[in-house]
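Escalated from tier 1: iron/sulfur cluster holo job.
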Amino acid sequence: MEATSSGTAPSGGTQVDPSPPKETVRLWIDGRPVETEKGINLLEAARSIGVEIPHLCYLRGINEAGVCRVCLVEVESGGRRTLQASCVYPAADGIKVYTNTPRARRARKRVVELMLSDHDMNCVNCVRNLNCELQRLADEMGIRKLRVTGETRRRPLSRKNPFIVRDYNKCIKCRRCEAVCREVQGVDVYSPKNRGFDMVIAPAFVKDLGEVDCISCGQCVMACPTGSLAEREYIDEVWRAIEDPGKVVVVQTAPAIQVSIGEAFGMDPGVPVTGKLAAALRRIGFDMVFSTEFAADLTIVEEAHELLARLEGRGKLPLISSCSPGWVKFCEHFYPEFLDHLSTCKSPMEMFGALVKTYLAEKMNIDPKKMVVVAVMPCTAKKFEAARQELVTRGSRDVDYVLTTRELARMIRAAGIRLDELPDEEFDRPLGLATGAGAIFAATGGVTEAAIRTALALTRGRPDTAIEFKDVRGLRGIKEARVDLNGREIRIAVAHGTRNARRLLERIKAGERFDFIEIMACPGGCVGGGGQPILGPPDRRKAVAVDAGAKRTQALYRIDAGKKYRRAHENPAVKQLYEEFLGSPLSEKAREILHTTYTPRGRMLNRMLH
Ligand code: SF4
Ligand code: SF4
Ligand code: SF4
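Tier 2 regenerated the structure:
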C-alpha cells in the first residue's frame, strides 16, 4: 500500500512546511527581550515567553480579526505609545510592548464591562456556567458591579431545530462561530446582520439553524466562548424515561466517548475510561448498557460487501462512507449529485437502535414499544440524524434520544457519581462485544482502515497478515492510498472537516478517479465532534497545548491494539447476529433494518441572500 497526501488539516494539522526559515525580529515585552518570527501577532509573541494576554474573539489561524478588543496592550513605536489589539498587531523590530500597565488593564476592563452592559447575565442557569470565557474574564478583571448601563435588547431563543439552541442575549459578537463555519467547515452559515447596536451574527434573515444550510456539526458550539450556542438538551426526557417503570431504557455509547469524557472530570485528554463509563451508565439507571462499537463492526461488514458489489458493477463508484451525519447533510445540501455514491448503510448509531427494537426485543421477549433507545454521541449532528424520517424501522424511530458527551457528563454529576472512583465494569452482552475495528471508527481514517481489514480478508478468503494501515492515519486534511484487492488496485481517499470534503469532491468532479472515500464532517473525525467536552479557559489552553484530539486518537489506536479481535467480521456477536437474525450481509432483512436512503435538499437560504 502506498500513500500520498494533500489538503490542509482543519486544525492542529501535521503537514510539513517546506518553505525556508522565517525572518526573525527583536522586540521587548514587559521589559524582556524577545526574538520571534516576523509578523507573528503580539498575543502569540507574549505567549512564547509565558505571558497570557486576556482575549475573547481570537482563535489561532481561524479568527484573527481583532473585533472584541479585549486583548488591548500598550505598544511603544516611533516615539508614540498607543493602545493596540495584540491579536492583530504584528511583532516588529524594536517595538516595546506593555501588557500589564494600569492603562491597558483599565481599557480591557472597560471593554468587558461594555459587553456585559447588554448581556443576559443569568449565569446560574446558563449551560456554560463555570466554563464560560466571558464569565472567567469578568472574574479575573474583578468586575463586581456594572458601571455601564443603558439600552438593552432581548430576543427569544432560537430553538426550532433538534440539534442547536441559539441565545442571542448571550452573544458577544466575537465572530468565532462565523469563522469556524466558513474556514474549517466551508459551510458559511453566519455573517453580521443589521448595524450598530442592532448588529447580530446570524444565519440569513436571522433564521433558525434548522431553516438554512447548516449541517448541524456543532463546530460553532465548540468555538463559542459563551452560552450563546449550545446543544439542544434532552437530559430531562432521558431522566423521565429512566424513572418510568413501564420502559426498558437501553443506552449505547460511541467509541469517541470513552477517550474524552474523562476530560469533563479533570482527567488528561486521551485517558480511556471505558469500564468506568459502563459502570456510570448502570448507576444512572439505564436497564441495558452497550457500546456502539458493536454496530460499527456491523457497518463495516455491510459496507465492505457493498464495496465489493459495486466493484463488480452493482452500484456507483466511488463508494462514499455515510456514517457521519454532518457529512451526509452537507452532501444533501451542497453535492446532491453524489448521493448515489453514498453507502446505503445506516450509521452505527442507527443500526444499533434498529437492532435493539427488532433483534434484541425478539431475543429478550420485550415489546419494542416499551423500549427507549438513548445514544451518547460526541456529536450534535446525531440529534438531527435521529429525527430523520428515513430512520424509522417498523414504525418506530431507531433512536429516541441523543445526548452529547457534555450532557452525559452533566447527568453523571447530577447523580452524584464520582467517575474517577468507579470500578471498571463490562458492557452488556451480546451487543456490547466489539473488535478493535469498531474502536478506531471514531478517528479520521478509522472507517477506511477497518474496511480494508475486512475487504482484504473477504477477497482473499483468509485474513491478510497486515492489520495496521498507517497511511490513512493522521491529521492531514486529505489522505490518499492505494490497496491491492486481489489483483485490482483500489484508490482510496480520506477527508475530515467538510471544507476538505469540498476540495476532494471538486477534484472528483474534475475527473479524478477513486473507488472508496471516507468523509467525516468534524476535524479529526468523531474525536473532534461538536458534542465533546468544552473545557473552561485554563483547561482549554492545556487541551490545545497537548492537542487533545491527537491524544484521544492515540488512545483509540491503543484500545484497538489491545483487542483480541481486530477485524470487524471476526466479532463473534456479529456472526451470531447473522446466524440468528439477518441471514447474510446485504440480505433482504439486512437491507430492511440496516440500510437507508437520502434526501436531496438543495441550497436553502445561503450567503447569496445575506
Ligand atoms: S454566557 Fe457566560 S457570562 Fe453569560 S450568562 Fe452564561 S455563563 Fe454567564
Ligand atoms: S453547526 Fe456546523 S454548519 Fe451549522 S452553523 Fe455551526 S459550524 Fe456551521
Ligand atoms: S454566537 Fe458565540 S461565537 Fe458566535 S459571535 Fe456570538 S458569542 Fe461569538
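The CA atoms of residues 222 and 534 lie 6 Å apart.
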